[in-house]
Amino acid sequence: MKKSNQLPKSSSLMSLSSIYHELNFNQVHENDTAQVVILNEPSLPQWMGSIHPNGSLYEEPLDISKAQQEHMKFRELLEKEGCTVYTVREILTGSFDQKTEDIQHRVKLEDFAFKSIIYKLDDQQDENELGEVDKELVSDQYKKKCIESMSNEQLVEVILTRPTIKLRKSERDTELLATEYSFKPLVNLVFQRDQQITTARGIVMANLSSPIRSPEVQVMKLCFQILGLPIVGEIPEPGKLEGGDFYPCGEDLCFIGVGLRSNFYAVQYMMDRDWFGTERVAVVKDYFDVNQQRMHLDTVCNLIDEKVMLILEDICGEESPMKRLVDEYVRDPLTGKYSLNRHDIEYSKYLIQEGFDLVYASDQNQKDYGCNGLNIGNGKFIVVDKATAKTIARSTKTNNQLLFVDFRTVTKMYGSVHCCSQVISRKSTESKIIDFTQASTISNSSSSDSDSSLPTSPSSTLRKQPSNGSDKIVMVAPTYFVRPRIGSELMNAHIIRQTRQAVLDDFSKLHNVLTKAGIDIHLFCHEPFHRTDQAVFVSEWFSTHDNNTLVIYPLASAAKRRERRSDILNYAFLPKYTKCLDFTPCENGDLRVIETTVQEFINNHPDQHNSNDTAPATNGEFLNFSGIVLDRKNKIAYCSIDDKVYSSKVVDLWATTLGYKVIKMKTSSPANSFLFVGEKCAIFCPEALSLTESETVLNQLYETKKKVVVITQGQMESSCAKVVELKGANSKVCLVMSDKCFNQFTKEQIDTLTQTEDTIIHCDLTNLESVGGHGLIGMIGQLL
């Protein structure tokens, strides 16, 4: 499509959808021919950003004039290859359709600019000292007068730089004197990929993670209104969505990344409303890496042909410490709702299963933005790194032309040609013309929806597992386990990032050894908005039992109660667990259990991410699963008893409900900190209890034919009892622990454990343990 014969000459209010009847304003496949592309050239806001690159989310200092030249050559290349290109500035000024005098356009521009300017009194100026004329000069009426006098170009500068003017009374000359001009420029608007995604359904407005970027969404929303393009919907808080995490891959499939910049809340919100428009949605989970260098999906992979994926080799394979995992959701053709079909498939394995050829990019290729090229269809792929281009060419996986553009200065702002472009229309043999009236209706109706995004469909069937160990478990990655700490090195953002990365590296090792042993892991993460710092200890708020029973415990901590999230409950426990025993009424002093279903529990206990409740409950009766150690085979429960945390009343109610004999131990310590009971063996620290209670426990263990490894208090403090027994491949019984824990056992103790276990698995968790991640039993939620 040539720009010269496609651009409209004039219109009262530009409407691309009405003028380009033959175009579809959506994307079905990244490999389809790009027709309309939106860019934003570097200008004054980016110059402002270059004054302090780090604070502007830039990678390095840069020369803005060189960035402008590179960006212009990129635009020229797109137009040469047949794309119609608009810039944000052209859309806002009205120069894109060669008509800048349209009143409707002007009103939109003025109203937006009005909200972008702030008049404030100087900090030293008392408002009571202002006269009537002075007050008029800081009023909305005066601001409106100023805006009405500005040209479209001036208004655009206001919108892009967002000025604040501080004023005080003047002793001479004019009535007021401006004492300070400050700006909140949209320094990252050059990266047009992120403010929205263009799906098979159309344009969906995103919600950006960084506070300095969030206003960009409203600017792009204004651009689409000026262009006359309908918006399918918009992601509300606490959802986070950025366009760099999205790839369309046909009517059947699309990819959406979650991790550093986008979250599952936004994905669920879109699936519930069918905004992806594909039969399947592959959610690519970045829960081990979460690194700024690889912030989006488009920084580690790219669709360079119909079935060819360029991918960073370092993220590929089960052994990779920064691997990505895929959860696949399938849309029901009758209800239109998505359900989980399969989960936690290593990304490169999933791609190969789906018939993709892979071209592997090196770490240096990725750092040089080789993965961030732009597929414009018609057999052409734009690259910014020649070394990556040669890798693609030598792979013989694609015959696409590789078009090079020098972008070395623009990339210093932390993005390349894919980041800098938003393709809003591609020519596809698969796609159909969108009913824009219907799209507008969707957009209008979505605005009245609740901002909560609850899963609405059952997940895949979970296999029944034997008791005392399970080859299916739930884990929550410690993505935000490391928090700033006053008076420590963790006040430094760089140290926080380093420590967080080290912790995730350890967790990745644990995930890897468990996966190699044949353990089926369903991995979730936690987000800042969840306010659940300790979510990695997922096993503390639930337990599973025979007859497809899920038990939910009454918890004292408000943060722990927030861990009972609807997405985990839905996708980890449904549809297998048909009975839910809800002990949460005890939190309010109501000593009873409600027999219900998981779905009813979800419906009756909405997520509490908006709750301001942080104080622990005081008037209830509490019990969490760390206070119970089960001998499932013999139906015996060893329970800690403490008035504040482990209520004797709740223990009695629990035991009666589930039919367990109880051995009570008076202690405020979690039972699993000093006692482990496996299928054939037990680990116990008698020093943790009184002499009488210790004898009672030991007698019961010997009575049930357990081989008992007695540990010292020092070994207990090294989490030697916080081990977990799981069944792996071929039902092999595995005892899992950290290296630190393993090294605390004597040779004789290890020999005893080896006699009762098929294998002992251990890995280095030094970094995780150093910040409070002690003991594996709390990190592994068993699904029996």
Walkthrough of the structure:
The protein is of the alpha/beta class and 784 residues long. The protein folds into three domains: 3-97 and 189-446, L-arginine/glycine Amidinotransferase, Chain A (5-stranded Propeller), CATH 3.75.10.10; 103-183, no CATH class; 472-671 and 765-782, L-arginine/glycine Amidinotransferase, Chain A (5-stranded Propeller). Helix content is 28%, strand content 22%. The protein has a five-stranded mixed beta sheet. The longest helix is centred in the middle third of the chain and has 24 residues, at 493-516. Residues 1-13, 431-452 and 456-469 have low confidence and may be disordered. Residues 442-469 are annotated as: Disordered.
What tags apply to this protein structure?
single chain, 784 residues, alpha/beta, L-arginine/glycine Amidinotransferase, Chain A, 3 domains, five-stranded mixed β-sheet, four-stranded mixed β-sheet, 36 strands, 28% helix, globular, disordered N terminus
